[in-house]
Design a protein that fits this description.
Blueprint: H1 2-24, E1 27-34, E2 38-39, H2 49-64, E3 73-77, H3 88-95, E4 105-107, H4 113-126, E5 132-140, H5 150-161, H6 168-180, H7 202-212, H8 217-233, H9 235-239, E6 245-247, E7 250-252, H10 264-269, E8 292-302, H11 303-308, E9 315-324, H12 334-346, E10 355-358, H13 363-372, H14 376-383, H15 403-406, H16 413-428, E11 432-439, E12 443-451
Parallel strand pairs: 3-4, 3-5, 10-11
Antiparallel strand pairs: 1-8, 2-8, 5-8, 6-7, 9-12, 11-12
Helix pairs in contact: 2-3, 4-16, 5-6, 7-13
């Protein structure tokens, strides 16, 4: 018994110290990088999600001069999954010849994937599981796999793996054809950006949100044009975040979706893209984010380690909240629920936020989010409170342009927003910024970054 007591006396203080140390750890946002965001089936068409992720991470390592040997974890978001190599994070570690000890984790939660990956990296650092993490996201819409019809997939599986090929040529093929159906129905299906639960596209739901919240076509178009104008003015600033992609012997160095000139009259003449005007359609190609290829990566470190290596330690995650709403009808409204919860978690009010980075899936979705935050009815129905959250002035929103202008490679957007936000906090000396992303499935995520003086 005395021996056990002596052993326990040695162990207990160590456990207490370890827990205390873990709870005191702070993760800091050190740096970030991204590839150019390029329209799908354009200049990056031949680079899949793994290749794009490699470019972003390699660029970040070169830009930050971090020693790869001290990286503990790589966490990447990915939405358009390659079924032959679904763990993008591990594949990029192998392709870049990073230390084999790094496990690599891939996160998939629709358009929130990148921000969720970054938060998981923050958690790993603050929980004591890692000291240096690279996190971000990558997606190539150009490389999206086309699925075979289910009956044909079942037939081929039964034939190749279920014993059908052992029934002889005639018997095996007869069974295959009986399951697969006529060859006229064997054509692959293009991936659809639609909700499994509702059968409708995001654009359709954005149209519903515009109708329900009375967001006019004129206001949507105006917001979209302003996104391009702001991004164009900030282009030199944004280019400092970009690392090139080598593809087919060429270096792709610039975003290609930002328009330097937009004719408002031409935008006004665009037809609604998802519902006809007769059916209250207002969302159009100009007020929607385009299908985009790209990747992003963010360097997260434990504060003391970052300081010891001479890296900045001023930007931290003050709070993160993700939530969800019923997908139908207002699929993209969850951030309006997450924003007040994140503010509460951070101990802040709406007026404390110096600027907002709200992902622009559609103009309608952003404007609807801002409008419902001012609504008593929304507050009562969704937040169980009697007073509205408050107003967010448009002159605080997406100061350097947003996804409508810059592009939206699903999982890469979170890393872009965190990098741009951290850089803008440092550049301006502001203290708080709020990042908001809507996602398929009725999901929303909000993160508040703080620059500590």
């Amino acid at each position: 018994m005395d021996r056990i007591a002596r052993i326990a006396s040695h162990i207990e203080p160590k456990l207490e110290k370890s827990n205390s140390q873990a709870s005191a750890r702070t993760a800091v946002i050190v740096d970030g990088a991204r590839t150019p965001f390029v329209k799908s089936f354009g200049g990056l068409m031949r680079s899949d999600s793994i290749a794009l992720a490699c470019s972003a991470v390699k660029g970040l390592i070169g830009k930050s001069k971090i020693n790869p040997n001290i990286i503990d974890q790589v966490i990447m978001g990915n939405v358009v999954v390659n079924s032959n190599a679904p763990n993008v994070a591990r594949e990029l570690i192998i392709d870049l010849k990073l230390p084999a000890k790094i496990p690599g984790t891939t996160v998939s939660i629709a358009c929130l994937s990148g921000l969720e990956a970054i938060y998981q990296g923050i958690c790993q650092v603050e929980h004591g599981d890692a000291t240096v993490v690279i996190a971000g996201g990558s997606d190539s819409l150009s490389s999206g796999q086309m699925s075979l019809p289910r009956n044909l997939t079942l037939a081929l599986g039964k034939y190749s793996m279920g014993g059908g090929n052992k029934k002889g040529l005639y018997g095996g093929l007869s069974e295959l054809l009986s399951i697969a159906g006529p060859p006229s129905k064997w054509a692959p299906k293009a991936p659809a950006i639609a909700e499994r639960s509702t059968g409708k596209t995001m654009g359709f739901h954005a149209d519903l949100m515009a109708e329900i919240n009375q967001i006019s076509r004129k206001d949507q178009d105006k917001f979209a044009i302003s996104s391009h104008e702001k991004a164009m003015k900030a282009r030199k600033i944004l280019e400092k975040e970009i690392v090139p992609v080598l593809t087919e012997g060429k270096h792709i160095k610039k975003d290609d979706l930002i328009r330097d000139k937009i004719n408002p009259q031409k935008v006004a003449r665009l037809k609604p893209a998802f519902r006809s005007e007769k059916h209250h359609g207002t969302v159009n190609a100009a007020s929607s984010s385009a299908l985009t290829d790209g990747a992003s990566a963010v360097l997260i470190m434990e504060e003391e380690r970052a300081a010891a290596l001479g890296y900045p330690t001023d930007v931290v995650c003050r709070a993160y909240v993700k939530t969800a709403v019923e997908p139908y009808p207002q699929l993209l409204l969850a951030p309006a629920v997450a924003i007040p919860r994140c503010l509460e978690k951070a101990g802040l009010g709406l007026d404390d936020i110096d600027f907002f980075e709200i992902h622009e899936a559609f103009s309608a979705q952003v404007l609807a989010t801002l409008k419902v935050l001012e609504s008593k009815a929304f507050a009562k129905a969704f937040l169980k409170r009697d007073t509205p959250v408050g107003s967010i002035p448009l002159n605080k929103v997406n100061l350097l342009g947003g996804s409508i202008a810059i592009g939206h490679p699903f999982a890469a957007t979170g890393g872009r927003l965190v990098t741009t936000t951290a850089n803008h906090l440092r550049r301006t000396g502001k203290r708080y910024a709020l990042i908001s992303i809507c996602a398929a499935g009725g999901i929303g995520g909000v993160m508040i970054l703080e620059r500590r003086g």
